[in-house]
Amino acid sequence: MPASVLKSWMKDHEQLLSQYSNFNWFYLEQLETFFYLKSAQPREGNEDGLSRDEDLIFDIWNDSEFADVFLKSLNNGKSVQQASVATLKPYEAHLLTLGKRHVEKIDATSPSYRIQSVLGERIREGKISPLLGTTLSLEGKDLDLLTHSLKEMKVFSQKIDLAYKLIKKFSPSSWERLSAFTDKVIPIHNKEFVSYSHQEFPGVSMINFYDRDFVDLMDDLLHENGHHHLNHYLNLVKLIDEPADVIYYSPWRRTARPLRGIYHAYFTFYWAFKLFSDLANTDIDNIWYKFSPKEKEKILWRAVEEFHMLKYSFEDLKWARKKKLITETGWKIVMAQQKELKKFEAKIPKWERRIIRHKKDLQALTAELRSKKKMYKKD
Fold first, then answer.
1. 3-state SS record for 273-330
2. For the chain, how many structural domains are there in total?
3. Number of other CB atoms surrounding residue 125 within 10 Å
4. Are 200 and 29 in contact (CB under 8 A)?
5. Boundaries of domain holding 349
6. Which of 57, 81, 114 is where one domain is finished?
7. What three-state secondary structure class fits 19?
8. Does residue 296 lie in a domain region?
């Protein structure tokens, strides 16, 4: 397909594409990537590896929906540039179909089109079919919810409504951020995924309602909202330098991670700590929602668990700041969260003494963090 076809389509729909929406942001980011790859003429690497330009192109494709096409071309003996050119053809057909479906609102398809779950698409009876949609009015905040059936819509609406009420009542600052940055929730039915979101698609949270309990739901809603919140900052200002060095231990991933992974984790998992510490600091035995003994234990454990992991990673962030890898704005954000963390520090030992089911987990966690602190010691 000649590049002029996509360019011509964009010109014909310029007015629609110029209007701000979550979809247009998502779509224009992909168009920008496409035209960059279309014009890229990377310098070839040598026997020791890829050139810097080739490495960038490889990473872009490897992180994309068309990684399978690109990697297959490489495995067939093509160079990075040749594989990129070959992959651009189905990618362009996909983008044109995506625009027709969600800008023109017509039922277009093509063999190269990839189903967009983040847009509420699914395959039903061999055809692309949208999920069912409704808009919930939650504590003065409108939230779009997509579901696979009316039964799911009823059940998930009730769960989200309850989660929002509890968060607003007992963790007001969490509610303030949640109401500001999350616009749409879409269920995912896959045990391998807890929840996820895309930086290119602000405000849309993919949440696993099927394999998680109610306490997890509150956590997942706030965690993905944390990504939306952080992406808001990242779209406005630089927060960190992003060296490729994998020299930081992530308590959440239990593996080594680059600075970007640690910074993102600290910011997003802070919101789990904030929620659970606010709940743990409340007499939840005497509120209108009755948490089960198992749920109450989980709230305590999650507050304690996140405190120790955040405290561990804060030391790595301090070291990175010392090395001038975190900007002034980026550090202000960290310190604002650290200030809130310190408010509850004196309560952590008390909560630890109340933990029963997760006592061994706590012992294992603290032992692990002591060990990793020695292993990943910084100068």
1. HHHHHHHHCCCHHHCCCCCCHHHHHHHHHHHHHHHHHHHHHHHHHHHHHHCCCECHHH
2. 2
3. 5
4. yes
5. 237-379
6. 114
7. coil
8. yes
Q: Which of 192, 148, 134, 185 is nearest to 163 (CA)?
A: 185
Classify residue 251 as exposed, middle or buried by CB count within 10 Å of its CB (0-12, 13-18, 19+): buried
Mean pLDDT of 104-116: 94
Shared domain for 379 and 244, answered yes or no, is: yes
Boundary-marking domain end, from 114, 135, 168: 114
Distances (CA, A) of 122 to 23, 68, 94, 195, 203: 17, 20, 16, 18, 20
Decide if 223 is inside a domain: no
Kindly report the average pLDDT of the chain as a whole number. Answer: 93
pLDDT at 164 > cutoff 60: yes
- Which distant-in-sequence residues (6+ apart) come within 8 Å of 96 by Cβ? 1, 5, 6, 9, 110
Amino acid 48: pLDDT: 65
Q: Does residue 379 have a pLDDT over 80?
A: no
Burial (CB count <10 Å: 0-12, 13-18, 19+), residue 25: middle
Q: Check: CB of residue 97 under 8 Å from CB of residue 110.
A: yes
Residue 375 one-letter amino acid: M
Q: Please indicate, yes or no, whether residues 242 and 379 belong to a single structural domain of this protein.
A: yes
184 falls within a domain? no
Does residue 224 belong to any structural domain of this protein? no
Q: The pTM is what?
A: 0.88
pLDDT tens digits for 34-86? Answer: 999 999 988 877 766 778 888 899 999 998 999 999 999 999 999 999 999 99
Reading the block at residue 168, the tokens are: 């607003």
| Whether the Cβ atoms of residue 319 and residue 378 lie closer than 8 Å to each other | yes
Return the beta strands (E) in the chain as ranges.
121-124, 127-130, 132-138, 141-147, 184-187, 195-198, 201-207, 248-250, 255-257
187 vs 204: CA distance, rounded Å: 11
